[in-house]
Amino acid sequence: MTREITSDDVAALAAGAAIFGTGGGGAVTTSRFGTADALRKHGPVRLRTVAELTGQDMVIVMSGIGAPTVGIEMLPSAAQPETLLRETERAAGRRATAVMATEIGGTNGVGPVGWAAQLGLDVLDADGMGRAFPEATMVAMNVAGVPRRLTVLSDVVGNVTVMRTIDATWLERHVRAFSVASGSLCLGASPLYAEDVPGAVIEGTVGRAIEVGHAVLDAAEPVPALAETLGAAVLISGKIIDVARRTEGGFVRGSVTIAGTGTDRDRLLRVELQNENLIVLADGEVLVSVPDLITLVDSETGHAISTELLRFGQRVSVLAWSCDPLWRTERGLDIAGPRAFGYDIDYVPFDAGDPRWASAERGSEPGTAGAVQ
Amino acid sequence: MGIGRARQRAGHRGGGPVSGGTVDPGTPRPVQGDLRLGVDVGGTNTDAVVLDSSNAVIACTKQPTDDDVTGGIRAAIAAVLECLGERRHEVARVMLGTTHATNAIVGRRDLGRVAVIRLGAPAATGFPPLTGWPEELKAAVLAGSAVLPGGHMVDGMPISPLDPDAVREFLGGIDGPVDAVAVCGIFSTSFPEQETRVKEIAHAELGRDVPVSLSQDIGAIGLLERENATVLNAALYGIARKVTDALLTVVAEEGLTDASVYFAQNDGTLMALDFAVRYPVLTIGSGPANSIRGAAYLSGAENAIVVDVGGTTSDLGVVVGGFPRESTLPREIGGVRTNFRMPDILSIGVGGGTRVDPSTGRLGPDSVGHRLHTAALTFGGATATLTDAAVHTGRAGGASAEWSLTVERDMGRALESALVRAHEWLQDSVERLSHGKQDLPLVVVGGGGFLVPDDLPGAGTVLRPEHGDVANAVGAAMSLVGGRAQQIGTFEERDKAVAKASRAAVERAIEAGADPLKVAVIDIIESPVSYSTQHTIRVSAKAAGPLARLGSRTTTPAANP
């Protein structure tokens, strides 16, 4: 079914993208304003399904690359999406017809919708991760073995690099170098041909993010509504009793401990995190592991809380749900399983439908509602 | 707003000494000119106190806040000075915490028209200035905007060179009057020179009497939020001038011609008058900051949780080393997202007037507010409130202990369960703020303070300081002067980043009126920057110190925004 994304959908898209950010992906606020503005100015964009692509179509896969802390200060140039489109089409020798987000999780799930409006292109209802990941190698196209030999990078002042890399590992290395030279922030694009799309992207994620966002924004009891929409289990509702952070090998590593309240009283859960939430442990048992999705939300509002903003005493619910089957393949786990993040544990597939997670009452905590002024 | 205040106010409308105002003529006269007068403007009352050199409260008053705010300030100052009698001439400093700026933004009144210059093109051109502002506020404030060449990358590489001609051309081409200019450059918090240069150009183009607001002086990293705060600041120059003039007039009329005047900031520190004229936006949020700081001081605690229980809400905050803990979340003012430092306040719907559902005992969410003394069951009204719950269960201490209430069994049960809920909610909030430190004392102020039990689980010792009902004005009167600054740097150059941020914070504190010999860095926050290719940290330093000696007004930079 073809539908449109209008400026009225952007708040829900942003709230949903933050949920799929699994604690990372960067704050969605700035891209939310920019995207709503672009849709007002250029009109709605058409959301196209993968099935609606024809043999002639070329998808341009786009994202911002760099540190979100820098990204809130040095914002992109209005010219960058056009530069990327022009240079990608020139290098690929084909016209692009739709934009796909590399990463639905966080700010990168929101911005490409505005860029598509600006460029007069459709948005493909899919992305390359189905969540947020920290590296260029961690994309579905790479798991599926679709060669991504051409990448175009653009910085805020107008420098463009067209890279033809031999594989995703080298791509990651060169992207990092360009990103540093660009002041820790650049935009990237690569072409994806229609014939390569099936099986090499995570389908339906844009529409899903909007739907999930509506569950957060519109429901009277956001947490249960969110869990139902996502097909997620609420592992625990409680309060954060410890946040530990350390920096190892260029990554911020940490763990957060949640003590259950209400029906979860007397239970403890630990979430291991880097830029995203990666592992959930209880009594030494691995309950959830990357690439399955783990998001901590405010128990009252249902809004996602990023790893950087976790604080002692927050009332949170921990949601977990399964990743796309592509990530559960051997190659998918090699690229983005626990060991890819330095954890010496095996991936444990998470099943939100397991009866042990059945609990109707979690997520609603009467008496803890409180607004921060 | 506190319970009982309405009554007190009703009896003393029109100024003059009020109950709660105390003077002890028996104390020996201290050194001439050592008294400090603190004023805090709240939504309902304007409070004033006078502290002596040992920070003891020697006079206090509450006066109703009037519509133009200034009248309440005038009445409060007059009343508290009258309490002082002969000692009024010893008042050497007047500190004001006011809501003028907030009211102007929320009410879209008295705002100046601002020309907005962002430096950083071609970066940030996809996000025009004032993106996301409420339309009518934008219409009231925006004279014109331009995204011009300039700005820096995080590592100091210029994005593009500043183009002075483009600045002149933009300023010259604006239709209609320009009351002020706001300038915001990308990473100007680390590389401030371009903004300063634009200020010179603007003064040359528009005249020196058109004030220029620079983002480097206003906020932290986060371009749109800092720019928003800078534009608000520029729009507030007119009202700031009006308030400072009015306050100086009151001070002069009351014969305090030698007194220096200071304004309270949102972080619980003070700024000198000249500084307040240039940074009016920093006065927003000073009320909660003063309240937290004043309450903690009155209780003698350096580190504490403070709860101010009013008629409608309980406002909780944390004081660390004598200062309010700052929030990490962005704050909206009148619908505009900003990122400057504000106290971390948790506001919950537990107040003396909070309505109780007679059948279920559920709380609120609304409150009878200032009608408590006619609407509540205890006072012969028909509405069950949390005050009734406290009276019914015999938990209302202090002045309210004499109240009594007889109710039917079902109502009694509802009231009992409501109080349990209120206590649980308070407990949750205290735990949320205390970060699990059980030994932090809980300082209770406000007219509804009896709603907080002495044995609240999760809280340390409960302290109920004398004069807690004017804690906000006390906070204003006893504040230090401070400044904050930020830096982003690599881990390898961490020490350099800390030193640079510290130096900038100290400079800012001195500029705001702190004694250069006594100012010190009191807080450094380091946070790792996620997804950074190099190990990068963000450093935020805060410096504070006592006010410079009298006469400092002439040593601070001249009012020349």
Keywords:
heterodimer; A: 373 residues; alpha+beta; CV3147-like fold; CV3147-like; 10 helices; disordered C terminus; B: 561 residues; alpha/beta; Nucleotidyltransferase, domain 5; Rossmann fold; 4 domains; 6-stranded mixed beta sheet; 30% helix; globular; disordered N terminus; DUF917 domain-containing protein (chain A); S-Me-THD-like_C (chain A); S-Me-THD_N_sf (chain A); S-Me-THD_C_sf (chain A)
Strand ordering within the main sheet of chain B = 3-2-1-4-9-10
Total of domains of chain B: 4
Number of helices of chain A: 10
What would the principal axes of the Cα set say about the shape of chain B? globular
Query: What is the typical, i.e. mean, pLDDT of chain B?
Result: 84
Q: Please, what is the CATH homologous superfamily of the largest domain in chain B? A: ATPase, nucleotide binding domain
Strand content of chain B: 15-25%
Major pleated sheet of chain B:
6 strands, mixed
Strand content of chain A: 25-35%
What is the helix fraction of residues of chain B, given as a range? 25-40%
What is the second-level CATH architecture of the largest domain in chain A? 3-Layer(aba) Sandwich
- What overall form of chain A do the CA principal axes indicate? globular
Number of helices of chain B: 15
End-to-end separation of chain B in angstroms reads 36 Å
Q: Give me the Rg of chain A, rounded.
A: 20 Å
Gap between N and C termini of chain A? 42 Å
Q: Which two chains share the most extensive interface?
A: A-B, 53 and 61 residues
In terms of quaternary structure, the protein is: heterodimer
CATH class of the largest domain in chain A: Alpha Beta
Q: Assign the CATH superfamily of the largest domain in chain A.
A: CV3147-like domain
